[in-house]
Design goal:
The structure is a homodimer. Chain A starts with a strand and ends with a strand. Chain A has a 6-stranded antiparallel beta sheet, with no helix packed on it. A 4-stranded antiparallel beta sheet of chain A has the order 4-9-6-7, with no helix packed on it. The relative contact order of chain A is 0.30. Chain A has a single domain, classed as Jelly Rolls (Sandwich), CATH 2.60.120.10. Chain A is mostly beta strands and about 90 residues long. Helices cover about 0% and strands about 60% of the residues of chain A. Chain A has no helices and 10 strands. Chains A and B meet through strand 2, strand 3 and strand 10 of A and strand 2, strand 3 and strand 10 of B.
């Protein structure tokens, strides 16, 4: 039985699973702007669409597209803008 | 508000969304064996893990791994074996 999590009134939904090596989620973000905090080191891969991200401590925003990856260390806050519904894979370390 | 669908008693869960061009789902399959039928042409991409697939009309099974893609035409039945929890992206045409 796989577990889903709903955030931001259901505008971000994820499904938790276990890769061969790491806990992971795959999810979708609706169009919008979001602030997330991390409890573990997160490696985010864009599966479809694009995420425009302000990484912790950065003033600038960077856009990650299908196949691109970025890392956020544990206990950080980061901001995201989503202009097209976007699917992502996140692994936790 | 994103919509989730649960199949096989929650062993397959997907989230529906819209890419820039096509309707899509991203989902996870728990370890198990499944038979699916298609109502539209489906392009399946393995996001994490592996899917061992018996495509319609085939006697043989083929394993698709992270980044691999296969297509199933509309109104077909196909069989899947999943040996590690696997995330996939499916687009519909």
């Amino acid at each position: 039985m796989l577990k889903t999590n709903h955030y931001f009134d259901g505008d971000v939904v994820s499904i938790a699973f276990q890769t061969e090596t790491l806990p992971a989620t795959v999810g979708v973000m609706a169009i919008g702007e979001y602030t997330f905090d991390t409890s573990q080191r997160e490696t985010m891969t864009v599966v479809s669409g694009a995420l425009t991200v302000q990484l912790p401590g950065n003033e600038t925003w960077e856009t990650f597209r299908q196949g691109d990856q970025f890392i956020v260390e544990a206990n950080q806050i980061f901001n995201l803008k989503v202009e097209v519904e976007t699917a992502y894979l996140c692994t936790y370390q």
